[in-house]
Write a sequence for this structure.
């Protein structure tokens, strides 16, 4: 009987033997893990056709459920193996959304039993040159067998090492310790930890403990909040936060070279989980080596090879090639994340990082956000624009950070910002930053239930404990008029020695809404001396004085606020305070003073917010030319800004139309603002429910009493949103006037009386108060 000749698959220089699970090139074995070999076999058997991902996975793992990343890793191994062997030729191509196609033509060829498989890559056999042919002939069959066995052993070992159970899961928290620095060079202190954090933050897999959470835990341990996370402290922080591992790094100098070592240690018992090391030839290449150990440790801790490769931007692009700039940046981040951190110090350190490296994208972005948060929006916008221009030189996560904040704070396109944050959340589901910032978008558009949900979720992702809630969460409860819950958070913060000025502002506003005058005085006294926030305390007092009709006192507090802001080099906030005062004066009929303060605001500073406020004040006060010029400039410069187009401009235009007596057009103009009228912006005035207030005034002018009453009721139904804005008091007067139009004298008298009660200590010569008294007298 004739012996059946076995068929092999041949393509290019390769030959595939299905029975022996062997890939050959020029009759030499090419090592492959078993599952990678099986994947190649399926593709070869269906060459030049598309093999669907699902079909491929069922063939390779017939009785096992595996993640698609396993298949992607096999494809990567095959491409790398084949390409390294024959150059840049592509044998396997991806068909997006479907699967893979083997592009090379495959031939079936008979096995050649006369061929002995050699190996020059697996082992090396040294033969004495004086050995005769007969002796030599006895060696080579054994060499072939040895090569095959070693190839199989190598493949099995590779497979086992690359398919070990992950050291960590995506839910495990990792604490990064400060590097042990034995070089004597202080530039590495802090900088290497910051650089490593930036590298590891690229990973969608790793869940890093935030610096803020680490600082809070250190405080609970009785340690300074900015203490260096030594090995011992990091281990305890990890245990207290229920973390899984500590990343413990060190740097040492060996001659001119530097050795970086990174170990992952189980924080419960200190046992080593993984380690990586790299050598830098000199100081200038230390950051490159840092990137190498970061990439290596990610894979060893369980992140897929495909993920590591996709999200692995060079350190010089993720941060900076300058160690000195990175050092300044790390100090700035530490100060920024410290509860009650010093704004001036933070700003100076970020600026130093930029001075050292003018292409440091994330330093611009972080500085921009800091400026915006402290009310200096134009400086913030300038830095965020620069970061946006450099966004192609950063990691994927940092690109999300820069693009989303650009849409949020520069272009003002809240829909684009919302999409940015949602995509960021999808890719990095354990990152609290996009969740919290999505909440800010809801803050702007007035969806406070979602704001609360996002803020609470962000805190949960950050590992915030029962007594560590933020002032932002307290503000959420204030906006929803859940004052007891807000107060509990603020008082708890003080009880646990978290003396952040933000909590004092929480309590100040809660005291105002609960009519606790003594409480307000106590909180204000503790705030006015703060160099970063004192001007805000004065402005709060100005708003509250005006809320009670005391405009002389309000003017005095405004001037103190302006002086304090100017002293701290914050002309933009000073101008905002003047513009806010102009709106107040215009609303109550002090038109000459309103125009004067509007002019003073523009002389101090010009920005989007200030121009919008001055335009509104000018429109209310009858300066139609000034209002038209400013609103036209806003419309041209901010065509995609959601709040400019859907809140500010309609409100400004409606005020002008009412001055002309065109109530119907004012009502129509304000229709576009309805979805955003609850939104709170960076403006001190001219925003919160002002569209509803102007709509109420327009309905009054149109003699539509019930419609006007409904608009003013919106304001009264949201005290936590309106807070100390003067329209909260004037809404009672508006309702009284609306009920007069509706013929309900009883309700009208009650509404007027509510207004007079709020203004019992008001300045007697305020125009709107004088008119109100005349109107009320007619009801008697």
């Amino acid at each position: 009987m004739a012996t059946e000749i076995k068929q092999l698959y041949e393509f290019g220089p390769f030959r595939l033997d299905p029975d022996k699970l062997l890939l050959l090139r020029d009759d030499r074995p090419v090592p492959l893990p078993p599952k990678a070999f099986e994947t190649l076999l399926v593709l070869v058997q269906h060459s030049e056709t598309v093999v669907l991902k699902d079909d491929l996975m069922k063939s390779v793992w017939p009785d096992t459920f595996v993640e698609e990343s396993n298949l992607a890793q096999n494809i990567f191994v095959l491409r790398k193996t084949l390409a390294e062997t024959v150059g840049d030729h592509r044998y396997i191509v991806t068909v997006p959304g479907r699967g893979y196609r083997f592009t090379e033509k495959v031939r079936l060829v008979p096995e050649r039993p006369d061929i002995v498989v050699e190996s020059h890559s697996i082992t090396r056999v040294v033969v004495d040159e004086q050995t005769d042919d007969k002796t030599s002939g006895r060696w080579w069959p054994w060499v072939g067998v040895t090569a095959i066995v070693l190839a199989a052993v190598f493949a099995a070992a590779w497979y086992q090492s690359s398919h070990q159970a992950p050291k960590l899961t995506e839910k495990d928290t990792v604490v990064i310790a400060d590097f042990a620095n034995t070089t004597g060079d202080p530039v590495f202190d802090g900088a290497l930890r910051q650089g490593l954090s930036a590298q590891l933050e690229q990973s969608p897999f790793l869940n890093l403990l935030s610096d803020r959470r680490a600082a809070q835990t250190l405080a609970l341990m009785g340690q300074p909040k900015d203490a260096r996370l030594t090995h011992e402290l990091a281990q305890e922080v990890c245990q207290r936060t229920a973390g899984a591992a500590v990343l413990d790094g060190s740097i040492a100098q060996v001659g001119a070279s530097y050795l970086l070592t990174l170990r992952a240690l189980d924080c419960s018992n200190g046992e080593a989980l993984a380690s990586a090391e790299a050598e830098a030839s000199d100081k200038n290449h230390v950051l490159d080596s840092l990137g190498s150990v970061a990439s290596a440790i990610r894979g060893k801790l369980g992140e897929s090879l495909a993920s590591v490769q996709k999200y692995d931007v060079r350190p010089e692009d993720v941060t900076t090639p300058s160690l000195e700039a990175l050092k300044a940046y790390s100090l700035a981040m530490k100060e920024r994340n410290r509860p009650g951190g010093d704004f001036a110090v933070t700003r100076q350190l970020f600026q130093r990082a930029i001075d050292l490296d003018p292409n440091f994208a994330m330093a611009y972005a972080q500085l921009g956000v800091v400026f915006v948060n402290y009310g200096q929006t134009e400086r913030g916008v300038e830095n965020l624009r620069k970061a946006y221009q450099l966004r192609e030189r950063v990691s994927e996560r940092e690109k999300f950070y820069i693009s989303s904040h650009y849409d949020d704070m520069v272009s003002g396109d809240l829909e684009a910002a919302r999409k940015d944050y949602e995509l960021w959340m999808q890719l990095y589901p354990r990152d609290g930053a996009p969740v919290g910032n999505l909440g800010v978008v809801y803050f702007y558009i007035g969806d406070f239930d979602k704001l609360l949900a996002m803020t609470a979720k962000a805190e949960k992702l950050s590992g915030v404990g029962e007594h560590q809630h933020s002032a932002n969460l307290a503000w959420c409860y204030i906006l929803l008029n859940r004052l007891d819950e807000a107060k509990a958070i603020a008082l708890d913060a003080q009880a646990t020695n978290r003396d952040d000025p933000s909590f004092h502002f929480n309590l100040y506003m809660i005291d105002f809404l609960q009519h606790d005058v003594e409480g307000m005085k106590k909180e204000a006294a503790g705030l006015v001396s703060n160099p970063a926030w004192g001007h805000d305390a004065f402005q709060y007092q100005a708003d509250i004085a005006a809320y009670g009709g005391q405009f002389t006192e309000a003017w005095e507090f405004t001037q103190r606020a302006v002086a304090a802001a100017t002293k701290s080099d914050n002309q933009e906030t000073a101008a905002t305070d003047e513009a806010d005062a102009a709106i107040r004066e215009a609303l109550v009929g002090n038109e000459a003073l309103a125009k004067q303060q509007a002019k003073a605001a523009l002389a101090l500073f010009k920005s989007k917010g200030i121009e919008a406020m001055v335009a509104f004040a000018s429109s209310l006060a009858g300066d139609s030319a000034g209002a038209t010029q400013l609103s036209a400039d806003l419309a041209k410069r901010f065509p995609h800004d959601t709040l400019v187009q859907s809140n500010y401009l309609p409100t400004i235009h409606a005020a002008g139309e009412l001055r002309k007596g065109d109530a119907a057009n004012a009502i129509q103009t304000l229709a576009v603002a309805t979805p955003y009228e609850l939104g709170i912006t960076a403006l001190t005035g001219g925003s919160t429910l002002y569209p509803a207030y102007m709509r109420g005034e327009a309905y009054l002018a149109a003699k539509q009493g019930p419609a006007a009453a409904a608009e003013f009721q919106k304001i009264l139904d949201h005290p936590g949103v309106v807070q100390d804005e003067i329209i909260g008091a004037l809404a009672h007067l508006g309702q009284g006037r609306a009920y007069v139009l509706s013929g309900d004298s009883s309700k009208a008298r009650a509404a007027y009386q509510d207004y007079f009660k709020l203004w019992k200590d008001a300045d007697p010569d305020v125009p709107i108060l004088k008119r109100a008294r005349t109107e009320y007298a007619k009801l008697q």
Summary: DSSP finds 36 helices and 14 strands in the chain.
